[in-house]
Amino acid sequence: MSTSKTTPPTERDQGAGFRWASLSPFGKPLHRDLTFQVLVGMIVGVLLGIVVPAVGVNLNLVSTLFIHLIQMIVGLVVFCTVTLGIAKVRDFGKVGKIAIKAILYFEIITTFALAIGLIMINILQPGVGMHINPADLDGADQVTAAKPMTFSSFIIGLVPTSAVGAFAEGNVLQILVFSALFGCGVAAVGAKADPLVRGIDSVQRSLFWVIGRIMRLAPLAACAAIAYSVSSYGLDSLLSLGALVLEFFLTVIVFFLIIFWPVSRIAGISLWKMMRYFREELLLVIGTSSSESVFPQLTVKLTRLGIKEEVVGLVLPTSYSFNHDGTCLYWAATSVFLAQATDTHLGLGGQLSLMFVLLLTSKGGAGVSGSAIPMLALTLAATGTIPVASVALILGVHKILSGAFVFTNIAGNCLATIFVAKTEKAIDWTIMRRELDSGGIRQPTR
């Protein structure tokens, strides 16, 4: 069976003749279902980390290699997606309207995320009573704050000194700016640029083919990442900070219920059906803690949902740079947790100042993979109240927390794209409902 042009390799029909008993709950043969494979990989990773930790410690190479393979082409995917999105619209007023709506949405939701993160950590107070002296923490020398960022340096940093340099450094925000300008240039040329548009479209399809092959390593990468975490820090060290982990998981659940669920209702979709549709991507980011690992798949699947390409091409890449709902929850929770653990007084005024700084630093870390810890250290240094060295306290559980906040980021990015698309009336609702109801399953013939 041939694959439609918007179907990624991971979602292809598995052919006819399979018995229903051999299918996973997601409609594919169990051994070929990516969701099942990643889940098994994570379970095996935990067992490896416990039983043979010496092997688990050395498996970080595998997960790192997988993420590097994705990072190798994600910049090009962003470039193609944004350029095609703008070039096909050829209406600068419409492009600007979509961008403004998206950024306004991002700012509102991330502000709610920071507020909820601060409220929950103050209610549950998992760090109270720990009485930690930051100077005594092992790993304090591993904590390095990011460089302080002012508003002017942030604005200047939006524009790369070299377009090639932006791709070489993997700076998604700079790639986004360059792609938007290039897309506007292509749109301005008009019909004469049609061969170029077709060429970029062909490049994008080729990149999706490459992504499909790389994704075959996803279960192995998830296994390696989990095994490394358990082997490196041990279950005891992870359990010792279990209160913070449980608090953060509860905070994520609360955020989904009081923010994402109402937004999904306004957008006219079921939050559960949306998450089921993107189940493979959401499960993968839990294992790898890398949002970049699923960007190409999200681009394709959002388009398959019936959302116009120009909206997906503009909103999704922008959300990767500005819409860090889960990361904001993480920064708010861990900052106050460290204040509680080190007996640092942080009153209402101090927490409001912290929230303001986080609104700025969350944009400073945009598009920088693995920036959560450095940007947290920068935030603490900027406030000047919580000891920066105390960040070492959460290094042991950062991997667990990062899986949760990257999961939230990806769900938030998908929901943001659908929400903006609805406001633009850029959704084919017949396709949307059919796809969400099916869960993205291609039913095999009996």
From TrEMBL:
It comes from the Bacteria. One of its GO terms (biological process) is L-aspartate transmembrane transport. Its main location: membrane. It is a multi-pass membrane protein. The keyword Transmembrane applies. Coiled coil: none annotated. It is found in: Cell membrane. The keyword Cell membrane applies. GO terms for molecular function: fumarate transmembrane transporter activity; malate:proton symporter activity; succinate transmembrane transporter activity. GO terms for cellular component: plasma membrane. SUPFAM superfamilies: Proton glutamate symport protein (SSF118215). Pfam families: SDF (PF00375). The chain crosses the membrane at residues 38-59, 65-86, 98-124, 172-193, 214-235, 241-261, 373-394, 400-421. Keywords: Cell membrane, Membrane, Symport, Transmembrane, Transmembrane helix, Transport. This is Aerobic C4-dicarboxylate transport protein. It comes from Microlunatus soli.
